[in-house]
Design goal:
By secondary structure, the protein is mostly helical. It has 16 helices and six strands. Helix 4 packs across helix 9 and helix 4 packs parallel to helix 15.
Length: 478
């Protein structure tokens, strides 16, 4: 009775006010993200496995075209990310209705069949990235074992090791982490992953610099690999296209930009904080990319390996190589979650929408975990997310081609998600007149990027075809 009387005496308006203080304008729990956490998410998503192939990409393009292509992709990515950041709220970028996903943004600004095309491009790319990260993380794990083998037995040993067990280990870790309920809870993982990405990029940079300063006389040229010496004429063309795809992949984060922006608190305005985070993220990654790519090319020349930390361009000091590869693996563990959380959220929301009465899909069971507190278990989330991780791991085991896979993913996602939709939404939102000066140059930019994506995709598909001819599934890496 005393408890009951206390409850009755509470003022309903006070209770309501206390509740609304913890809610945002859309009725959801207050978002707490800042430009700093958004920058960490971006750096986690951008400085990924793409940085490892940049020395090879610069080797295909040469001293002139290589850095120029990097800078062009950097500018385009930042410019279109600012357009996309203004689309998070509609119709007004500061006070309008929130859009929670990339598809929601396209639906609010363009509508029609373009929404389905956006979903196909976005989620297809996200699936491809998670497969690519499974491949890359396993290669780095294998590299630690091979590095120790070379140190113990000498560089003449083959030190053959299968990637498959390490893909299984990576998948098991992801099955556990995938049970994190939502994207907003990943800030700590993204910050850790961002630290790891800086660590291994810095190590690769330092080792390349040490090799150059130590008197390495690698053969380089203004135009990259030499026709008739390193490659045939047709190989030069295909490798150039693939290198462009690799660089496009290195800048891919538009697919998760809206999901990152949805974690930001509303003051200062989300679009302003996101633009600041994009500037910091893209500027930081570009600096690392130029340094890693150019110094890697200077160190290894036209013989630069596809992955300069696991292709064993470096052998010593072995412990530093091991540490760098551990950092890669830890980073990709976090980056995998940054890219797959939007997939999880999309599928779960669609299922709840279509089967709202299904208890297997909707019911949450409270589980009291020591130290952590109460964790809510949903059996559909447990089964579906586990199945997704297993499927991506199996595909990675069947097609473990690092450079070719990264190039294809980058080519397929760059034009539609990084350029086309942000440009079209900006034109629609601003009600821009056709054939005006701004309309014309935006359309030229979009069509030029489409051509770039097509040639990059062609080079990557040709590389995949060549790799498949000589590949046997589940063979050991040598």
């Amino acid at each position: 009775m005393p408890k009951e009387s206390m409850y009755v005496e509470q003022d309903p308006e006070v209770v309501f006010d206390a509740g609304t203080k913890n809610l945002d304008d859309d009725g959801k729990p207050k978002r707490t993200g800042t430009w700093l956490t958004a920058s960490a998410h971006i750096i986690t998503a951008v400085i990924g496995s793409g940085v490892l192939s940049l020395a090879w990409a610069i080797a295909q393009l040469g001293w002139v075209a290589g850095p120029a292509v990097l800078m062009v992709f950097s500018f385009i990515t930042y410019f279109t990310s600012t357009l996309l950041a203004d689309s998070y709220r509609t119709p007004d970028p500061v006070t309008g209705k929130r859009n929670y996903t990339y598809m929601d943004v396209v639906r609010a600004n363009l509508g029609g069949r373009k929404v389905q095309l956006c979903g196909l491009a976005q989620y297809g790319n996200l699936v491809g990235v998670t497969i690519g990260y499974t491949i890359t993380a396993s290669i780095s794990m294998v590299a630690v074992r091979r590095s120790n083998c070379f140190h113990k037995h000498g560089h003449h040993e083959k030190c053959a090791t299968s990637n498959t067990p390490y893909m299984i280990i990576f998948a098991c870790i992801q099955i556990v982490l995938s049970q994190i309920p939502n994207f907003a809870n990943l800030s700590w993982l993204s910050i850790l992953a961002a630290i790891m990405s800086f660590s291994y990029a810095t190590i690769g940079l330092a080792l390349s610099l040490a090799k150059v300063v130590g008197g390495a006389h690698a053969r380089t040229s203004l135009t990259g690999v030499t026709v008739g010496v390193d490659v045939s004429g047709s190989e030069k063309v295909w490798r150039t296209f693939q290198a462009i795809g690799d660089i496009a992949f290195a800048y891919a984060y538009s697919t998760v930009l809206i999901e990152i922006q949805d974690t930001l608190k509303s003051s200062p305005p989300e679009n302003r904080a996101m633009k600041r985070a994009s500037l910091i993220g893209v500027s930081t990654t570009t600096m690392f990319y130029v340094l890693c790519g150019c110094l890697g090319y200077a160190a290894f020349g036209n013989d630069a390996p596809g992955n300069f930390l696991t292709g064993f361009g470096f052998y010593d000091p072995f412990w530093l190589i091991d540490f760098a590869n551990v950092c890669i693996a830890v980073h990709l563990i976090g980056a995998y979650q940054v890219f797959c959380q939007p997939i999880f959220s999309f599928v779960e929301k669609q299922c709840q929408k279509h089967w709202p009465e299904n208890k297997f899909i909707t019911r949450e069971y409270a589980l009291n975990i020591p130290i952590y507190g109460v964790y809510y278990v949903n059996f559909f989330r447990l089964v579906w997310r586990t199945a997704y991780v297993i499927v991506t791991a199996v595909i990675a085991m069947i097609f473990p081609f690092f450079n070719d896979f990264l190039g294809l993913i980058g080519a397929a996602s760059f034009w539609p998600l990084t350029v086309y939709f942000p440009v079209e939404m900006y034109i629609a939102r601003s009600k821009m007149k056709k054939f005006s000066l701004t309309w014309t140059w935006l359309k030229i930019l979009s069509w030029a990027c489409l051509v770039v994506s097509l040639v990059a995709a062609a080079g990557s598909i040709q590389g995949l075809a060549n790799s498949l001819k000589s590949y046997k599934p589940f063979k050991t890496q040598q």
